[in-house]
């Protein structure tokens, strides 16, 4: 306990009273590790039987599981197939509480490394669009990989400031999640390095930062839209006080009480000056009450209005037209598309024939549904943006929709790793499906060439989707019973 900051322990003693000793005792317990099922791949009912791990359910997360201390889920082929995400159990809570529906436009503002973004993307079920942002470009790259690993193609990945996004996307999003930068008090047990960061900055620094972010975020929420604010800290200054700031900033916002689960604690308006009683509808997860490190979450909704209805009627009248994105509103009649930035060669509704032929050959659903999205070719890379979404000028995009692959100098099409992860053996007829027990699975993930003449006909050749137990891993190119490995270099088994 000597490693805990003294001002932190004194504050917790003051706030928790008779619960303090139980809270302090929780720091002597071993943290529980968790994984969250990718519901785009599997169902929660079937999942436990597929893994050789000691799994038990996270009670308040329908697709969340604890795993045993001796388990290594990051060293299992199913991890490389995107069947699950490794995530601290209480950190699963925010994305589970935001009621995302297929077709929503969703913003995850501080999204890296992707724990919450992958769940939000899975909830969309391929409809609507997830905007996943992180101000750090390097962290945004890790975010992109995790989204692609999960097979989420209806996404826009950006690396921008909240201020810049608010300029371009006013009143645009149906749902917004802000897992805000914070002092990280709930991470002290799991990550002792957070103690040093806390000593250097502390709650006051992060409270100011949170308010700066919230001032911009509220501008991007549509009337009737919902916002989920969360932190992994216990500080009232960063939690209830930040929500109070938001309520004062925008009187059209109200706290939506979160459904209670056994062990959840309510928000504490009595811990801040002039606290709104509605703050009791927020949620606190404490490590001495639940098997998690700790979290705070608040769900808010913006009042709807006749202006909203007018906007929705305008969108309905524009249905079926090619609509450029202009400041969060749709305007018909202008067929000129926004480019994703420097180097854009062409964009429009036509998929290059090489890519179209490939999609048809592998039986990808996009081959029949491209009318629902916008095709863009940039520096010979082919993308399909989500339906009704276009890239806005001046925004730093790491990804605009689903990256299909590249058009080579001789006109040949080379499919991407991202495209592979949207498929499965059941969808793609050109596939090689290996059981998880086959040593060729690991060899493939390490980048080795494989002998697969026992699985293919003598004359079979060309691109093959490599799968494990039906789940996609990546591409290979077949010739004479030998599979040349095309697995993404940066994703390989280490």
Using brief descriptors, characterize the structure shown.
494 residues, alpha+beta, Nuclear Transport Factor 2, Chain: A, Archaeosine Trna-guanine Transglycosylase, Chain: A, domain 4, ten-stranded mixed sheet, five-stranded antiparallel sheet
Strand content: 15-25%
Radius of gyration: 24 Å
For the sheet with most strands, the description reads: 10 strands, mixed
Alpha-beta classification: alpha+beta
Mean pLDDT: 88
Return the CATH class of the domain at 337-419.
Answer: Alpha Beta
Please mark out the parts with pLDDT under 50 across 5 or more consecutive residues, or reply none: 306-346
CATH fold-level name of the domain at 337-419: Nuclear Transport Factor 2, Chain: A
Number of helices: 15
Which shape, going by the Cα principal axes? globular
Q: Helicity level, as a percent range? A: 25-40%
Instruction: Measure the end-to-end span.
Output: 36 Å
CATH architecture descriptor text of the domain at 337-419: Roll
Describe, in plain words, how this protein is organized in 3D:
The chain has 494 residues and is α+β, with helices and mostly antiparallel strands. Among the domains are: 337-419, Nuclear Transport Factor 2, Chain: A (Roll), CATH 3.10.450; 423-491, Archaeosine Trna-guanine Transglycosylase, Chain: A, domain 4 (Roll). The protein contains 15 helices and 26 strands. Strands 5, 6, 7, 8, 9, 10, 11, 12, 13 and 19 form a ten-stranded mixed beta sheet that branches. A five-stranded antiparallel beta sheet has the order 16-17-18-20-21. Strands 22-24-25-26-23 form a five-stranded mixed beta sheet. Helix 9 (202-217) runs parallel beside helix 10 (240-249). The protein is globular, with a radius of gyration of 24 Å. The chain starts with 5 loop residues before the first helix and ends in a 9-residue tail after the last strand. Residues 306-346 have low confidence and may be disordered.
């Amino acid at each position: 306990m000597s490693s805990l900051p003294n001002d932190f322990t004194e504050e917790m003693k003051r706030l928790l009273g008779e619960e303090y000793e139980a809270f302090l005792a929780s720091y002597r317990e071993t943290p529980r590790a968790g994984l969250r099922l990718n519901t785009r791949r599997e169902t929660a009912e079937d999942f436990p039987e597929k893994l050789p791990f000691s799994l038990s359910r996270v009670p308040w997360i329908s697709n969340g599981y604890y795993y045993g201390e001796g388990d290594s889920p990051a060293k299992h082929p199913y991890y490389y197939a995107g069947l699950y995400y490794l995530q601290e159990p209480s950190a699963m809570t925010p994305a589970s509480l935001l009621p995302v529906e297929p077709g929503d436009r969703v913003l995850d503002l501080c999204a890296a490394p992707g724990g919450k973004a992958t769940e939000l993307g899975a909830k969309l079920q391929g409809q609507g669009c997830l905007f996943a942002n992180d101000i750090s470009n390097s962290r945004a790259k890790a975010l992109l990989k995790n989204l692609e690993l999960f097979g989420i193609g209806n996404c826009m990945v950006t690396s921008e400031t909240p201020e810049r996004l608010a300029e371009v996307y006013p009143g645009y999003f149906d749902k917004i999640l802000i897992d805000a930068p914070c002092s990280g008090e709930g991470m002290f047990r799991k990550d002792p390095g957070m103690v040093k960061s806390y000593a250097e900055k502390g709650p006051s620094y992060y409270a100011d930062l949170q308010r700066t972010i919230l001032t911009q975020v509220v501008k991007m929420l549509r009337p009737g839209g919902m916002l989920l604010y969360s932190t992994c800290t216990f500080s009232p200054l960063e939690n209830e006080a930040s929500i109070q700031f938001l309520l004062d900033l925008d009187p059209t916002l109200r706290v939506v009480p979160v459904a209670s689960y056994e062990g959840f604690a309510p928000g504490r308006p009595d811990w801040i000056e002039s606290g709104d009683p509605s703050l009791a509808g927020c949620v606190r997860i404490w490590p001495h009450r639940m098997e998690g490190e700790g979290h705070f979450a608040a769900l808010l909704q913006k009042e709807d209005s006749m202006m909203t209805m007018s906007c929705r009627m305008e969108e309905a009248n524009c249905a079926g037209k090619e609509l450029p994105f202009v400041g969060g509103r749709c305007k018909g009649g202008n067929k000129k598309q926004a480019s994703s930035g420097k180097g854009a060669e062409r964009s429009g509704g036509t998929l290059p024939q090489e890519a179209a032929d490939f999609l048809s050959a592998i039986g990808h659903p996009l081959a029949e549904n491209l009318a629902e999205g916008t095709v863009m070719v940039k520096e010979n890379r082919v993308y399909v943006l989500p339906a009704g979404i276009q890239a806005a000028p001046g925004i730093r995009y790491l990804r605009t929709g689903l990256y299909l692959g590249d058009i080579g100098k001789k006109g040949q099409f080379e499919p991407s790793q991202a495209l592979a992860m949207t498929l499965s053996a059941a969808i793609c007829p050109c596939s090689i499906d290996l059981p998880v027990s086959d040593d060729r699975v690991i060899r493939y993930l390490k980048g080795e060439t494989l002998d697969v003449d026992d699985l293919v006909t003598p004359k079979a050749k060309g691109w093959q989707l490599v799968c494990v137990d039906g789940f996609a891993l990546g591409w290979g190119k077949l010739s004479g019973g030998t599979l040349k490995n095309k697995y993404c270099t940066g994703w390989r088994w280490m």
